[in-house]
Automatic annotation (TrEMBL):
SUPFAM superfamilies: PRTase-like. This is ribose-phosphate diphosphokinase. The keyword Ligase does not apply. Pathway: Metabolic intermediate biosynthesis; 5-phospho-alpha-D-ribose 1-diphosphate biosynthesis; 5-phospho-alpha-D-ribose 1-diphosphate from D-ribose 5-phosphate (route I): step 1/1. Belongs to the ribose-phosphate pyrophosphokinase family. GO terms for molecular function: ATP binding; kinase activity; magnesium ion binding; ribose phosphate diphosphokinase activity. Pfam families: Pribosyl_synth. It catalyses: D-ribose 5-phosphate + ATP = 5-phospho-alpha-D-ribose 1-diphosphate + AMP + H(+). PANTHER family: RIBOSE-PHOSPHATE DIPHOSPHOKINASE FAMILY MEMBER, RIBOSE-PHOSPHATE PYROPHOSPHOKINASE 2. It comes from Oriolus oriolus (Eurasian golden oriole). The keyword Kinase applies. Keywords: ATP-binding, Kinase, Magnesium, Metal-binding, Nucleotide biosynthesis, Nucleotide-binding, Transferase.
């Protein structure tokens, strides 16, 4: 998946391989690729307590990344998440509004959100009418 996205964006990529011994606990994290003197963008499906993404940000900075951003589909942000983000080396943590973020943004200025209501509405409309949802992959409604 990473290769496909990088090819479509015409960018190079690195990845962070994480190993877990049990749920919600990262045992080991390995950076594969070169981020020295580059802007790094972490992409993940969700972040709950943010231990993993903050650890990953530290790993990227240690490897020479000049800036680190995170882009997440779902920002759950429970427990120590906001404090961790505030203290981490992120320029910004960008999430969709699948979960309301207004209150959390008041306590963590690094959090920004992207409104995806139009694309969700169009996906629902297309599903209801038996139309192609995959069409939205290349034709995003604004």
């Amino acid at each position: 998946r990473v290769t496909s996205i990088a090819d479509r964006l015409n960018v190079e990529f690195a990845l962070i391989h994480k190993e877990r011994k049990k749920a919600n606990e990262v045992d080991r994290m390995v950076l594969v690729g070169d981020v020295k003197d580059r802007v790094a963008i972490l992409v993940d499906d969700m972040a709950d307590t943010c231990g993993t993404i903050c650890h990953a940000a530290d790993k990227l900075v240690s490897a020479g990344a000049t800036k680190v951003y995170a882009i997440l589909t779902h920002g759950i942000f429970s427990g120590p998440a906001l404090s961790r983000i505030n203290n981490a080396s992120f320029e910004a943590v960008v999430v969709t509004n699948t979960i309301p973020q207004e209150e959390k943004m008041k306590h963590c200025p690094k959090i920004q959100f992207i409104d995806i209501s139009m694309i969700l509405a169009e996906a629902i409309r297309r599903t209801h009418n038996g139309e192609s949802v995959s069409y939205l992959f290349s034709h995003v409604p604004l």
